[in-house]
Amino acid sequence: MQKTYEQLQEELEEARYQLEEANELIDAIRSGDVDALLIKSDEGHQLYTLENADITYRIFIEQMNEGAVLVNADRTVQYCNSRFAEWVCMPLEKVMGKDFLQLVAPHDAVKCTALLNAAQFSNVKGELSLKGQREAEMPLSASLTMLNTKDDQSLSLILTDLSEQKEAQHQLRIKNKQLEEAQKETQRLNAHLEQTVAERTKELYANQQRLALMLETMAEGVGITDAQGQLTYANPMAQRILGLKKSTILERTFDDPQWQNLRLDGTPLPGEEHPMAVMLTTGQPVYDFEIGVQPPDKERFYISINAAPVKDAEGNIIAGIGTFMDVTNRRKAIQQKDEFISVASHELRTPITSLKASLQLLLRMKDNPNPVMMPKLIEQSNKSLNKVSVLVNDLLNATKLTEGQLMLDKSTFKIGALIKDCCHHIRVDGVYHLNSTGDDNLIVHADAGKIDQVLDNFVNNAVKYAPNSKNIDISYTKVDSMVRVGVTDYGQGIAPEKLPYLFDRYYRVDTGGHQYSGLGLGLYICSEIIKKHGGEIGATSEIDRGSTFWFTLPLAG
Fold this sequence. Notes:
- The structure is a single chain.
- By secondary structure, the chain is an alpha+beta fold.
- It has five domains: 5-49, no CATH class; 53-161, PAS domain (Beta-Lactamase, 2-Layer Sandwich); 218-326, 2-Layer Sandwich (Beta-Lactamase), CATH 3.30.450.20; 333-402, Helix Hairpins; 407-554, Histidine kinase-like ATPase, C-terminal domain (Heat Shock Protein 90, 2-Layer Sandwich), CATH 3.30.565.
- 44% of the residues lie in helices and 25% in strands.
- It contains 16 helices and 22 strands.
- The strands form six sheets. Strands 9-8-13-12-11-10 form a six-stranded antiparallel β-sheet, sandwiched between helices.
- It starts with a helix and ends with a strand.
């Protein structure tokens, strides 16, 4: 049946209405206002949910490590993800509808309220703590954003767990505190170290000054060489002993050919036998090694060397130290002693041999005495015995002087009377004339026997060394508070270079190539006797004009 126009017009209007509803539904679905559709069918009503992009976002929010919470204007929780529910230890359905402030730690309630109020006007961030349930409170970082919908407003909170960060900060604070304490301790130790270094530096400087002063004032020479033997230091005594300036010494080595080193027997000392070379080669110290040194234009002298190596931490030799002293006098004394033993043996053997011969001859003629020979043999025996007696007395007196056992038996007497009565054997012999002049009223307090011994020695030496001077003058005069006694001969005199050694022990004058008998002790004993009295002794001489030996004694008080 054919429809009328009106019918068709009504169907068209109905179709247009349905089309508009369909378009509105499609727009609603597209805008996300529809989550599901309820469809009526022959089997009844069926609910169809829409699978769109929102599902992805919901899954994303559920799987976030952060907590997500949606609250309305009165702070009621409308929604939260599982992470937040886990944090507050409550099921999701119980969290929904809770006042958010009930989930916040009480001490952060005011802060939380301020953040919620501020978030209504702009996005805000802050920190707060959730209530502790099974464990301690959980510190969170909160980011608050206002969400506007058609019907109302909601506030979203994205919460980040700060527990590890806070623990790290806590550990950092502990480490910082420990670091500060360590820094303070370091500063204290540094201050102590600086003080210690300053004290040690001061002490080291003082020790260095003392060491330098010791080296500069030592009675021994000190020389320091490098490992190759080049001299790098020489103290003033070393310069004095070697007779060289410091600048000259430092240009040389210990075995420099400019000065000749000798063995004690006078033969050249090979470089490898030098104590410094032995020390540098073996690394072992050398003690009291004597060598002779012959400068090109000076008298030979002798030194005793001690040498020791300077080593680094690995035991390598980096330098050498040598100390030495001038032992020329000691060496000469040893030589004089050796010569003295030889001379003493000879001097004693001569009179003893003569005495022995005289006694043997007397023994042979005891049963048949020869009136001519016997007196001569007896006289010769007495002379020999007197010589032995003089030699033995000199030896004994020298020993006493060395040991400090020479005793004085002092008395008060006139020195003139003693002089006129001395040297009886010379006066009786009549060969030499002793002329004494002076003030006979000069009185001394001394050991007359010892002074007579000195006078005898002076006169005997005049006779021995100036045999052609038949006149020997003895003078005694007052000089200040002393009396000066002089014995003068008019012989050949004594060379000036020998005068300083006349009173040394064992010294024997060799005049004109003639060696005279004696032990070289007489003048030494005279010197010690006069010094024991507090006087002085000496000699003056001119070649071919004679010599004067003199001494002084204090006048009696």
